[in-house]
Amino acid sequence: MLAIGFRFLAGRYHANPWGRHVNEADIEWPPAPWRLCRALISTWYHKADPQRFPFEQLEALIDVLSESRPVYHLPPAVHAHTRHYMPQWKGNTSLVFDAFARVNPESELVVAWPGVDLPDELAPLLDELLHKVGYLGRAESWVEARRLPDDELPDVFPCLPGEQDVDTETGEVLGEVVRLLLPRHHRDYAQWRQDFARNELATLKGKKKKQLQATTPEGLVDALSVDTSDLQQAGWSQPPAGQYVNYLRPVDCLRPRLARPETHSTGVTTARFMLTGKPLPRVEDAVRIGERFRAAIMGRAKQLLGGRDRLPRELSGHELGPDNRHGHAFYLPEDADGDGRIDHLLLHAPQGLSVRAQKVLERLTLFRGHGGVEWRVILEGAGQVRDFRGDSRYAGKATVWQSVTPYLRPWHLKKKPSEREQVAAYIRKECRLRGLPEPETVEWLPEIMVHGKPRRSIHFHRFRNKRGLTQPDTRGCFLRLRFPQPVSGPLALGFGCHFGLGLFAPAKEDNQ
């Protein structure tokens, strides 16, 4: 097996995929075989000795590389970018995105061609080109390249050609589909060019014919050497000597490796996300965000797992039975910095999150609100709820808990006793049903403070976006609950509690 290793000495890999605008901030990861072959050709023209390594050897080398589809072993990387305001004519500026993959300079990206044995006469040429290649992608993507011996090959190559990102039988996520540009097999290209010259070029005249002739030379090496701007000016949507092939790469290959919080249990019940975008939603719209958050996760799960009937039950809340009414996920919006805006989302499933559910959460990157507003979400970590006590108020442990959003009773009022007495009875009943101690006192609060402003329940959105849903309480109230012993969060009670209504947090004077 022929294998090549690349180390990115500056810790960055800059490369824009073919056909994508630079301001889309996309990254060609892994580096396409088309780019690798062009880098070798460029190095031969600029740095190789043509008397020692004649052009015919270069052609033979590129022909060998075109005969097989390579596989990849990818080092950990992070998709990042910088933004620059570039000066323009008459003092104007233009915002430019510079995207790159952040890579550890000590890590090695391995490209291997299965079933390809490099002829002995071509090995010195390849070693010379790899030794002298200076960059891969843009000029600032400095690389150090070498041919790998068999005893240094990785055990697995997780990025390989493939069309299906999900196993339809098991629901297992196989990878993320990405298109890579490969050079055509040299014999396929020769046959294609012969047909093109006979059928297409023969009918053309003038400038158009000259452009097409210049961008479709006879040899594969010459075709790979055509400048990208010339191909675009000639009207090619993709290089005529290239072909797109779908690859499956690991879903987290361009994401930060977030260490799971330390825990003494193997069960995962809780995941915390950071919410970014402008403007961030208000705390008063918590139930709207909770519903939209769940809808985004359900949509992502359908895409990954192959349909509505394969959704993880702990995320959907369906088919759990009457004895597990609250074992499925709570989608809880959170204002972590106290500025009145929702900046985090805590997902908590008391009965645990399956491996399939965790993979869905890892793939979630954004969701949309009303009016076309979009927010990006970043998974900060997953583990037991106690692992987040240092970050999230909802994950705290306390004897006194106070409303963050209005509590709406899940049952209708009776004529007697008073409303406050019935609400206290409902709170105690819910706690009993969930295995929590009953609160000693249930104090009614006229208002709460949100970013220094007094807020009553009418300031909050208090309605689910679901047709035909019976809602016993449309007004809501704020409460302070005092328990006989510390209670662990998150604590959400009443109507709409799985989406951010009836949400409680430890009182500041009793946060443990």
Descriptive account of the structure:
It is a single chain. The protein has eleven helices and 22 strands. The two termini are 59 Å apart. It folds into two domains: 2-159, Alpha-Beta Plaits; 270-510, no CATH class. The protein has helices at 33-47, 55-66, 123-132, 186-199, 206-214, 220-224, 228-233, 286-305, 313-316, 355-363, 419-433, and strands spanning 2-8, 12-13, 71-73, 77-87, 93-103, 109-113, 143-147, 160-161, 176-183, 242-249, 270-276, 330-334, 344-348, 366-368, 374-383, 397-403, 441-445, 448-450, 453-455, 478-488, 491-492, 503-506. The model is unreliable at 259-266 (pLDDT under 50). A hairpin with a 5-residue loop joins strand 4 and strand 5 (93-103). The chain is elongated, with a radius of gyration of 30 Å. Helix 8 packs across helix 10 (355-363). The longest helix has 20 residues, at 286-305. With 512 residues, the protein is an alpha+beta fold. The strands form six sheets. It has a five-stranded antiparallel sheet. Strands 17-20-16-22-21 form a five-stranded antiparallel sheet, with helices on one face. It has a four-stranded antiparallel sheet with strand order 3-6-1-7, covered by helices on one side.
Helix content: 10-25%
Mean pLDDT, all residues: 89
Structural class of the helix and strand makeup? alpha+beta
N-to-C terminal Cα separation, in Å? Answer: 59 Å
- Sheet with the most strands? 5 strands, antiparallel
Unreliable spans are 259-266
In one word, what is the shape? elongated
Integer count of domains:
2
Annotation field: number of helices: 11
Spatial ordering of strands, largest sheet: 12-13-11-15-14
The proportion of strand residues reads 15-25%
Rg over CA atoms = 30 Å
| Count of extended strands | 22
